[in-house]
Structure formats: structure tokens, C-alpha cells
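Worked example 2:
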Amino acid sequence: MAGDDGILAGARRTFAAVAVFSLFGNLLILAVPLYTLQIYDRVLSSRSGETLALLAVIAAGALAVHAVLEAVRSRLMVHAGLWLDRAWAPALLVRGVRRGATGESAAGASLLRDLAVVRGVLTGAAVFHLFDSPWVPVYVAVMFLLHPALGWLTTGGALVLFGLAIASEYATRTPLRAAGLRVQQAQARADDCVRRAEVIEAMGMLGGIIADWRTEAARTEALTGRGLQRAALLTALARFGRFFIQIAVLTLGAWLAINDQLSAGAIVAGSIILARALAPVESLVGSWRSVIAARAALARIAAELQRPAPRRATTRLPVPGGRLTLDRVTVEVPGRERPVLAGIDLALAPGESLGVIGASAAGKTTLARVVLGILAPNRGCARLDGADLATWDRDDLGRHIGYLPQDVELFPGSVKRNIARMGKPDDALVVAAAQAAGVHEMVLRLPLGYDTEIGEAVRNLSGGQRQRIAIARAFYGSPRLLVLDEPNSNLDSEGENALIRALLRARGQGVTTLVIAHRARVLMTVDRLLLLKEGRMEMLGPREEVMARVLPQPGAPAAGRLATAQGAGA
């Protein structure tokens, strides 16, 4: 991605500024041990109140500046986290939506959660321990100035704690990373269950769902527990090591003082410096789990951003006339022996309508996704007015396409905004789309008409009402290509009549239409029928001719005969 280097460079500039503030902050904190050293070695021996007051003012000033630097450092990291969120979230959301459109919904949804993990670490305490750890050698050098023996003891203690930090990395990385992936999968499954709560409750499936969830949770808990137990053990060892080294420094300092090699003030100052030197390392051992999680999340984000984005045309093409061509389109899915679609070859003139029929899993919805440009075929090409649909700019192409998916989804917002495709609504276009779809009167009967909010209250709308609003959304903006997947699956006779009138009106206006349906009545509006069988074109021709061949039984109602014919191919 072209903008990624700029994003990371901006973050590095912020990190560099934080590192500079960390340098001065760590130097200023030396005021505490130096103040202690002067108190014991000068003030107490000279009994000078003026010296004490001067040292106290200097130490207080240094600590005040240190507090300001800490506050600035914290604000910088908060702003860095929020800025990275603003910089990355739009790109990740776009990629998440596009991955969801190609069937990778779980991977798409996890990207923003990964970003939240990274932001949480950037604005938490762990990142400051990372910035403070490079200054450990400075404190060790001061210990050498007090006495070489104290310096060597501090060096040994720091190396032990660093070793524990590295051990924590290797001991917890694999189980915690595996547990993190399982948690993501469990979250995706839980979200899926919530979306299907009505089915689960209606058919008493909750027991089985919970049993599956507990099985997965037990595996996740085993991995998490293994990682956390190792982390807890290493954290306890690090805490013991720090206290032990603290006692060792005091003991060594006292022994040196007994032998007149160190002053009493240096003992206390050395103890303070040692605590400051070892604190970042000990804290890193304790917070290593969050650091690992953030690093793994950042790696997933980086891998996603490095994936090549689909090439899109940058030239804005004129409004298409609606000429749709599919040239030997083949779609393959890893793990399946047969292609989902194989050698689909057809052409629709502007204003022509095609009905697609076939058994379940025949490839009808996949064909719709190819026609929409959402799914690029492995071989062959789908074109609208000669332009490859897979490379057409999505925002530009979307204005010319009306789509009704098999599973109707409405978004939080008003009916008006939903019909306007969540953009800035044009009241005239919204009403025109509703009238074209034959839902204007139905919308007016809602509590606030077009301003009725659809959020959690979407349950107050029937399946037919939701589908009719989605049909109006498909007609918004006078599209040149309509793709309707089971458009009458939830409609009553009134809604189906309105749909048929809308399709006939669109046909008269030169709109190219692709209708996937099992119920025959809506197919009476199409010019031609395509019968798919196991991803292949079994039959293509004029509607009456195909129906006569598919439905040879005389005297049976068309709808019933079509359902029988399609079911026989299942």
C-alpha cells in the first residue's frame, strides 16, 4: 500500500520524540538519589540549613520538570495511538469489507480488533517500560561511579532480569499466539450465533451451540492457561530476583561502608538507583503478554496491508448502457473438486432481463457476485459495456448497480438513509426509488415514514417490509443493472405484485436485469431463462421455451412445476 510508509514514518517521528523525553526524564529522576547522597554526606555533617533548603528546591524543581515530561510523554503516546487509529482504520475497514464480500468475513472483522489491541498497548504502561529500558545502562554506569563492585552486582542483576524477559518471550509466545487465534475464532462464532439467535431459540439449538462453544473454550483455556502459568512463574521469579538484588546491594554497600570504601549516603542512593534500573526490566517481564499480543496483531495488520489490493480503473467511465457479457467465466474454490461456475458464456443487451434457476448450490449466487464485480473469476471475464467489472472503481460502479442479496441486511439509520445506500439522502431520489419499487405507500404507513429509525428496532419490521425497503434501495439512483437474488422470498401477494410492476417498469426503461428465483411468478417478467446445474449452463433460451423443456407436465401450475423441476435437480 502506498500510504503505509508514510503512516509508519509518522509513528516513528512520534516515537523519536517520546524517546527524547524519556532521555531527559530518566536523567532528571537521578535528582532523587543525588539529593539523598548530598543529604547524608554533606548536610548532616555540616548541619547547614541553607544547603538543605537549596538542595530541596533543586530536587523539587527537577521532579516538577520530570512530571511535566512524563505528562507530555503520555499525551504524545495517546495522540500517537489515536492518530494511528485514524490513519489505519479506514484502510482496514475497506479491506475488511472487501474480504467479507469474498467470503472471509471472520478475517475482515478481526482487523479492527487487532488495531484496538495495538492502540491499547501504545496508550498503556508497557510501552513506557520499553522506552525506559534503553536507559538501564545509564543507571548501571552511575552505580559503577559509586563503586565498581556495586556496578558489577547491578549489571549481573539486570542481565538476570533480561534473561527472564527473554525466557518469558519464548515460553509464552506459542501458546498465547495460538490462544489469540482461537479467541478470534470463538468471537466470530459468537457473533454468528447472535445474528442467528431467532433460529437458535426457535428450534432449541442453544444446548448444542453451548456444548460446541465449551469444547472450543476448553481448548482455548488450556492454551491460555499454559501461557499464563509460565508468565506468572517468570513474573514471580523476576520479582524475587529484584528484591534479592536489592538486599544484595544493601548488604554489599554496608560491607563497603564498614571498610570505609563507601559512604552511608551512597548506600541509600545506590539502593534508589538500583530500583530505578531494574524497574523497567521487571515490568516488561510482567507485561510481556500484552506486548506479544500487540506484536502479533501488528504483524497481522502489516500482512493485510502488504496484500496486493485489487487493481481498479482510475478513469471515470461514462454511465453504462447496461450491456452485460460473460466470457467463459470459471470460478474455483480451494478444496472443491468441481468449479463453482464453469464456462459461463452469455450476453445481455441493454434492457434485457435474464432469470436464473437451478437447484441449491448450482452456482446462482456465485454468478450474481461475478456480475456485480464482487468476485473476480479465476478464468474468463465479466464486462459491463466492455469494461471489466472486477477492475471497475467500486464507488463509481456501485452508483449504476442495484442489488438485492438473498439475505437482506438493513443498517442502523433511518429508512431514508437505508434507501439512499447510507449516503447523504436526496429526498426526491429516495421517494422516486420507493415509488419505482412500489413501496412508497408501505413506507408512509411506518411510524415516522421515511424518517423511521432502523437500528435495534429492525425487529419491529417484518421480513417482507425489510425486503421491500431493500428492493427500493436497489432501485435508488436509476441503476442501469439490477441483480436480484430471491427478491420475492418474503413477499406477500401485495409485495410480489409491486415487485413485478417494478421489474416491468425497469425493463421498459432499458435497465438490464438479472433475477434469481425459485418462485415462477416473478420469472414471468424476464426475457430469457438460464438453468444452472452444478455450476454449468444446462439450458439458456427464451423464457417460454426453457419453461416448456424444464416443465413438461401439462396442466400443472407454473409455480408448482418450477419448484418441482428445481427440486429434482438438488
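Confidence is low (pLDDT under 50) at residues 1-7. DSSP finds 21 helices and twelve strands in the chain.
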